[in-house]
Amino acid sequence: MNLRIKLFTAFVVLIIVPLCILGVVTYIVSSHSIEEKYSRQTEYSLKAISYSISTVLKQMDNVTDNGIATSVFHMALAAKDPTKQDLNAEQLSLNNSQRNFRSLLYNHPAISYAFLYNLNGSGKNSNVSIFTKENFTTMPFEDFKKQPLYKEVMDLNGVPKWIAPHEYPELTGTEPVFTQIRLIKELSYFKNIGILVVQIKNWDIESIFHNLSPTQSMQSTEFMLVNDDGLILYDPNKAFEGQQLSTVMKKPVKFGSGYQSFKTDFHDEKSIVSIYHLKDYSWNLVSVTSWKSLSKETLVFAQWFIGITLLCLLAAITFNMVFMRRITGSIAVIVRFMRKVEGGDFNVRVEDRGKDELHILAKGFNDLVDQINSLFKQINTKQKQKTQAELRVLQAQIKPHFLFNTLESINVLAIQNEGVKVSEMVHRLGSILRISIQDKEEIPLDQEIEHLQSYLEIQKFRFDDLFDYEIDIPPELRRRSVLKLTLQPLVENCIQHGFEGITYKGHIHISCWADQGRIILQVQDNGIGMEPNQLLKFQYMKTDKEDEAVRKDQVRYLYEERRGLGVRSVADRIRIHYGEHYGLFICSSHLTGTIIQCVIPDAEWRDWNDS
Q1: Residue 501 pLDDT > 80, yes or no?
Q2: How many angstroms separate the first and last alpha carbons of the chain?
Q3: Which of 51, 134, 274, 550 has the fewest CB atoms lying closer than 10 Å?
């Protein structure tokens, strides 16, 4: 990031961003304040509506209570021909209280329809009409008894049950009326004798909603009546009546007692929804107010804030382009050359002109690059010398006692006048020494196999009938290059440790194959194997970044014990020469033998892929 961008970023981070945060916080606080204030105001309005609705319904409860008290419904149910009973006719001999109630019931403007179910009747005699209603057929009593509503009315034991429009259209019809259902008892001995069904017109309910005087902030508010199942029972605008609230509101609602208010999408518009549960009824008053209408002032503030922020940003861009460009241009050139140096190009030089501070900076940069270039050359030279020294040390760690044992065996053969065997042993030893003293670090795999065969033949002479061996390496792989003295220490480990104390003839199998750019050399024996704790000492393959202390402890333990030193030397040489992703894999278990896999890169496969 150049200096111009840094200065511009500093201006944005230290001025524009705090200004934006301040504006966002102010907007959020203002919105929350508006929402909270509106929520309190709506709660008062919904409580007032709830009180008005409850008053209307309780007035009708009082009317029917009066009818029960004056035994008017009892007398209607006790008539000989209840299907013809009508409170319009002068067929009953009534006292003054009963006649007054009959007049009140008949002349009540809100009552739309009323009838009785006779609990002691049967068939058509079960329905007792009080008011007639055109184009409406009363549900038979036998069908009504099958409804869950019947059990609920009976459980209320005379307490009125109110049904809103659209809740039970099969019983109340499709007109938007409120229906009261209650159990009628004979007052003298409280016997259940009938069920009263009274429908009232929704004039009073409509007047409650239409006569609201909303404030300026509530002019876009809609009120609805919703039951606990989410069915919209009453909508003054008739837009959503009879629908489920979940079909028009995004957020699911759990209805309960009390008041709740939240912001959500209602009919694809962001709105404030407030819900108040009516006491003693399974209904809820719902108010919906468009958030857009509530947040007009906040939106005006947000527009002004965005405009001011854009002006500040434009001023920052102008300042950055006009004043800072001349200062940062020269510094940007030096930064570009520094990135080239970071990429390993130490031949770059900055043209130093003038006599100001930028000239001093450019000259200091050039001097620093010269010093770094010199230091890198020294480090590379020392690193190569160190690596070669480590390889020579590791090669020298291969046990020398083999040479002394072989010379001792040749001496014994010479004493026994075994000239042919002496000649063969000397030839094999010469082949081993010729390959070992070569100055090359890598030799063809064919020469490594020749060296290994010479070693195995000498060992077979020394340990007669202890083991046999098999070499299975494809001819096309014998031209590959490997580090010299790679296989011999692995085979030596099999003979000295794998076949120690066995009562059967040992067998060594040497094989090789190529796999995805790698050469795998495998040495397998049928010796005594290793215990798990012994196998842990031979974890030479480094796949992850291991803990340095643990690694040093393992190495120290290996070198102190001296067992497996040749194998360790091979693993270290491979890792130093080829990298951390190559080395040895060892698989072994007690009494089942050991498999050692040497993994090295395939130079020919890599060259073929690069081309």
Answers
A1: yes
A2: 37
A3: 134
Sign of the C-alpha dihedral computed for residues 104, 105, 107 and 110 taken in this order: positive
Q: Which residue has the tokens 């409120």?
A: 178
Residue owning tokens 């050991």:
594
Measured over the CA atoms of residue 229, residue 231, residue 235 and residue 237, the dihedral's sign is positive
Residue 484 · residue 436 · CB < 8 Å: yes
Query: Do the Cβ atoms of 164 and 155 come closer than 8 Å?
Result: no
pLDDT digits (tens, 9 = 90+) for 403-430: 777 888 888 888 888 888 888 888 888 8
Let me know: does 479 contact 445? Beta carbons within 8 Å. yes
Token pair 């760690």 is found at 397
Residue 561 token pair: 């014990």
242: alpha, beta or left, given left = phi > 0 and alpha = psi -120 to 50?
Answer: left
Give the per-residue pLDDT at 391: 59
Cα–Cα distance for residue pair 602/327, rounded to 1 Å:
54
Q: What radius of gyration do the chain's Cα atoms show?
A: 51
Strand, helix or coil for residue 248: coil
- Print the SS3 string covering 130-173: CCCCCCCCCCCHHHHCCCHHHHHHHHHCCCCEEECCCCCHHHHC
Angle between the N-to-C axes of helices 357-396 and 565-578, in degrees from 0 to 180, rounded to the nearest 10: 150
CA distance 223 to 293: 16
Tens of pLDDT, residues 289-310: 888 887 776 777 777 878 887 8
pLDDT band (50, 70, 90) for residue 125: low
